[in-house]
Amino acid sequence: MIKDENQSVIEKKNLDDRIIALAGNPNVGKSTVFNYLTGLNQHTGNWPGKTVTNAQGRYLHKGKGFILVDLPGIYSLMANSVEEEVARDFICFGNPDATLIVADATCLERNLNLVLQTLEITNTGILCVNLLDEAKSKKINIDLKELSKQLGIPVIGTCARDGKGLSELMDEAYNLTMKKSIKSNYIIKYDKPIEEAIALLEPSIRKLIGDLSSRWLALKLLDGDKTIIKSINRYYKIDILEEEEIVNKLQLAREVLINSGIDNNLFRDKVVSRIVIKAEEISRKVVSYENEKYNLRDRKIDRILTSKTFGIPIMLALLGFVFWLTIIGANYPSQMISDGLFWLEVRINAFLITINFPVWLQGLLVEGVYRTLAWVISVMLPPMAIFFPLFSLLEDLGYLPRIAFNLDNFFKKACAHGKQALTMCMGFGCNAAGVVGCRIIDSPRERLIAIITNAFVPCNGRFPTLIAVITIFFTGFFSGLSGSFASAFILTMLIVLSVVMTLLLSKILSRTILKGLPSSFALELPPYRKPQISKVITRSIFDRTIFVLGRAVVVAAPAGLIIWIMANITIGNISILSHCASFLNPFAKLIGLDGYIIMAFILGFPANEIVLPIIIMSYMSKGSLLQLDNLYQLRELLINNGWTWLTAACFIIFTLMHWPCGTTFLTIRKETQSWKWTIVSFLVPTLTGSLFCFIITTIVRLLGII
Amino acid sequence: MGDSVFPLNYLPLGKKARVKALISVGSTRRRMLDLGIISNTEVEALQKSPSGDPIAYCIRGAVIALRSEEASQILVEEIY
Description:
- The structure holds two protein chains of two kinds.
- Helix content of chain A is 64%, strand content 7%.
- By secondary structure, chain A is α/β, with parallel strands linked by helices.
- The longest helix of chain A is centred in the middle third of the chain and has 44 residues, at 311-354.
- A six-stranded antiparallel beta sheet of chain B has the order 1-6-2-3-4-5.
């Protein structure tokens, strides 16, 4: 068993299983290769942002088991970020039987940087040149045979989304991992003094650690890379700076370098430049362009999507359009599911009466558990099942980096990292995924800011709640299309508000507890890709459906149970629920809500999807309504329980800004490794939301509008 | 270095230039080198973001957006 950075364990089904590390730049179809080979829809692949943690899957080929470990998408192994460190450590110290590097055929030179760096570490590399079809349509030719000769490793061309070339790839992986003979690493020759320094140091490393990667480790030690010393310590339990021989040789080698005028900085420059030049040389030998202007179409699209005049309006319009489709599209299935489930409820009740089922237990199970579940499924599921694939499509197209590009200046002014715009976008899918995605930000200060403010953007689980309340209170009186347009417009404005709050709080954090200046960054704008529409839709609907249903059963059912019990057990003639609600009421009133709503937010901690259903359950248990099957009746229920447009507005604001859900909370703990920052992440949105609601409520009340 | 050398962020859109020097230090320098920004690398200014900063450049076949802070530390010479 091998432990990687995050203590995730590689589990072999069979002791003879071979381990294959899967590396590659972001956006090269690594996840497609992974999913195709393992037949898995790896969970992380369903979130925007793709691989955020090391997923693993097993496949069989020629009767042999292979475990594929999907490493984070990275451009380099120089350990500039946590992700690069994770990938580097797994390739170097995880002892994979082979390392499969996926490269983008349309941008081979850039990808070769990672390929060469990987080959310096391992002698069991296989290169998969993916997206050959796209290269072909751009009239880019790649001589795969020559590339294989140049690199000295097997090279396979693939179109992973059609599965083309993948069986050859598996063959190569099979051959390579079955081979007994050990071949030497790919060697990049550096300048003479550097080679001399390596020659001095390498034998001692080989003696201590073994043959594997000794040349590369020597390079890293000469470089003075502190992370590698930590990693050696962790994996080999050797404190390399306590080893006298190494220290002496390192000293000698450094002297050689300094005598040739190579200090630490120049050393690094020379090493990196050498790899870049090598990549350029190889690429010149194997890549030919029939059409030098092969990127013209992408540039034209970029000129529109990121233009000064239209860039931001188009972005808002696209967002609004996605919301509109979600609202329009969710109506019908929502109604159908709800009709179906309530029809079933009547039948279940009738059945339970015929078998003389205890009345209290019937209430508990049907009115408590079943109804909450029915609400979660009918109101929450359809918008999620529509929004998520649409969002994934935008992501597959390559639009998210353009959003980051458009918004970067705002983030810079907020002293935050440019990539925070990306992690913010991931938050729309799921805040927990957004928080993990913050690993792409290497400066710890800016990463914390991105983590703390991630919950300000509403996740997929909060959209349905927002849509329902917006429709009920603000746009329900519009008829037909104009209603859905108005709802989409309000929702878009709410997103603008949440982005503004993200920026504002990032700024405040950078001025107070996380002082500092923005660090450098480079944002890649990958080529636009034709999304695999049918695959995205089926996959995300299918996976989301199962995921949401699973979570609903796990979370909503017990919550429904608790609510029912609290509503039906009385102390001094008043139910426990009312006791709790009246305890919370004074605070709730201050921020325009009521005790039941706050209770629902508290009980909704495990999953935001269940907040609205819990509110409905609480109100219904007070006996004001028995059946509830459409939004109009929901409006009646809420108004009967004292909701005004101010309550609705504050509810919406508080939905946008309160503590992160349980999953996100635990993820923040895991990612920051600190309770302090986890609690800060809890408090920042909660206090902001409370303050926001308090101010609105106070102003409205002072003006006497309500 | 002659007078013709200037910071990359002043390169007009659609123009190409050759990298003459990288003056950034520390981790920024590392990152720029990793992108393949070394002496004599050809870069082309492609597209400004709506607010004018960052700017997207074509560097070794990839499109990379750099903020003015980083681009100003890359000295280039225009290719005519």
